[in-house]
Design brief:
Keywords: Disulfide bond, Extracellular matrix, Glycoprotein, Leucine-rich repeat, Proteoglycan, Repeat, Secreted, Signal. The protein is mostly loops. It has a domain at 263-274 and 285-379: Ribonuclease Inhibitor (Leucine-rich repeat, LRR (right-handed beta-alpha superhelix), Alpha-Beta Horseshoe), CATH 3.80.10. Helix content is 7%, strand content 11%. The chain contains 4 helices and 14 strands. The chain has helices at residues 8-11, 28-40, 73-76, 367-370; strands at residues 2-5, 92-94, 112-114, 136-138, 162-164, 183-185, 207-209, 230-232, 251-253, 275-277, 300-302, 320-322, 350-352, 376-378.
Length: 379
């Protein structure tokens, strides 16, 4: 039963969940490579909109870069025959989607290396030792196994910022990752656990993608990641929430696991946390304390498709709450407002409760006063 619905599509803040913000990329050159890279792997990511117009196989070069310094002939020729090196961007190596079964030689001048969507099975030790200024390495969509990847393969890459190893056959976390790393993409592999020291020293890491693996244990591996903003551990085998959330964290994705409880005041250590996804787990009301989610920073909370019997208490600052597909049988206004009057109210805009055990007349009479900002309430 829908009680109010005003401009529903425009209200949702899905755009706020955009995983990668253009604001992260301050340099013009990074923007061009981001543009091209996102186009090249659109089948895997939906975090940013893709440009609709067709373009050349390398990024569009604006007017201010249309007359670069001439590239010495000896340098322009230094490109593996299996790959492409655009003349106007001599630091980029394109070896993607060429049915390669091995990793080509990487010239020393390269900063961006694209090997995605091939049939590469191994990355031998020392493969990047000749190109220690690499900043981006894209190896997703291959058949790389942990057994055939050198243990110190990335250790000498002191400028590496983004590493894409998703959609491979990895069963272990890569080791000896450089401190410079900002984004680590490991989704769609077969990783089963994350040792406590697997991410040690990665103080610049802002985004960690580990969804669609077989992870059952993450230990305290997130501790010490003082720059971490986003962690995606959805579609795994976790039975409890990760220990020690970083204080910098803003987005936490844990949907499609087997989590049944959350410790009291668990989210208090992450005062910047904005978005939490815990749908499709095994959470019960008994497994939550009365103030588990009563944290003022949280704007969106997804607890749909669990086993909750009650609406958990939430902060008056929360804007979107998803509770559909639970076993809730009571609409308690105290979950949203401890005091209901003209001066005390919730900022909730979207509340979804369909698929529960609520009666059609379950909404209490003081709900309009408490939930005066709600544009959507669905039961």
């Amino acid at each position: 039963m829908r009680f109010c619905r005003m401009h529903w599509a425009s209200i949702l803040i899905a755009a706020g969940l955009c995983v990668v913000s253009f604001g992260q990329y301050e340099e013009d050159e990074d923007m061009y490579w981001l543009h091209h890279y996102l186009r090249s792997q659109s089948s895997y990511y939906n975090y940013l909109p893709f440009y609709e117009e067709e373009g050349p196989p390398y990024p569009y070069i604006p007017a201010e870069f249309s007359n670069p310094e001439p590239i010495p002939e000896s340098v322009s020729r230094e490109c593996p025959q299996e790959c492409e090196c655009p003349p106007n961007f001599s630091t980029a190596l394109y070896c993607d989607s060429r049915s390669l079964r091995y990793l080509p030689f990487v010239p020393s001048r390269m900063k961006y290396a694209y090997f995605q969507n091939n049939q590469i099975t191994a990355v031998q030790e020392g493969a990047f030792d000749n190109a220690t200024t690499l900043e981006w390495i894209a190896l997703h969509g291959n058949q790389i196994t942990s057994e055939k990847m050198g243990k110190r393969i990335f250790a000498k890459l002191k400028h590496l910022e983004r590493l894409y190893l998703d959609n491979n056959n990895l069963t272990k976390m890569p080791s000896f990752l450089p401190r410079s790393l900002r984004e680590l993409h490991l989704s769609y592999n077969q990783i089963t656990r994350i040792p406590a020291n697997a991410l040690e020293g990665l103080e610049n890491l802002t985004a960690l993608y580990l969804s669609h693996n077989e992870i059952h244990d993450i230990a305290a591996s997130l501790k010490g990641l003082k720059s971490l903003i986003l962690v995606d551990l959805s579609y795994n085998h976790l039975r409890k929430v990760p220990d020690g959330l970083p204080s910098s964290l803003e987005q936490l994705y844990l949907e499609h696991n087997y989590i049944h409880s959350i410790p009291d005041e668990y989210f208090k250590v992450a005062p910047k946390l904005l978005y939490i996804r815990l749908s499709h787990n095994s959470l019960t009301s008994d497994g939550l304390s009365s103030n588990t989610f009563n944290t003022s920073s949280i704007l969106e909370l997804d607890l749909s498709y669990n086993k909750l019997q009650k609406i958990p208490r939430v902060s008056t600052h929360l804007e979107n709450l998803y509770l559909q597909g639970n076993q809730i049988n009571e609409f308690s206004i105290n979950s949203f407002c401890t005091v209901v009057d003209v001066m005390n109210f919730s900022r909730l805009q979207v509340l979804r409760l369909e698929g529960n055990e609520l009666q059609r007349n379950a909404v209490p009479p003081d709900a309009p006063l408490c939930l005066r900002h709600a544009n959507v309430i669905e039961i």
